[in-house]
Specification:
Layout: E1 4-5, E2 14-15, H1 17-29, H2 35-47, E3 49-50, E4 66-71, E5 77-83, E6 94-96, H3 100-105, E7 113-117, E8 123-132
Parallel strand pairs: 2-3, 5-6
Antiparallel strand pairs: 1-7, 4-5, 4-8, 7-8
Helix pairs in contact: 1-2
Amino acid sequence: MSTQTSTQPLPPIALRPDDRAKLEQIAQANFSRNPDTADYLAREIERARVLAPDEAGRDFVTMGSWVTFRDETTGRTRRVMLVYPEHADVSAGRISVLTPIGAALVGLSKGQSIAWTTPSGEERSLTILEVEADDAAAA
């Protein structure tokens, strides 16, 4: 089973320098435990533009930001906070970047859509409806 990128073109994404460094460490540390998602996350990190230190990144999904997105397959809208794995709590709406949806969300901005193939081979797509920075969040 592998989490693959869909055949559709990937939207441009951006990461804050500190997020990129920590995400690279997380991807590397999880290749043996969660190889499919770690590989997907590593590919997303590699293709991301790194924001300059003076760029706030408020328009992009960053670690600790609240994201409202629509699942294009089901039409369902969800609002979640993207967090590092140790802070994940699905019941509180905090999803880990080390999940297929979390890895897909990272670096996107409002209005962008991304598609990927699930481990079961299903094509999925989501669209970012809103991004809210939460500077106080312990991402």
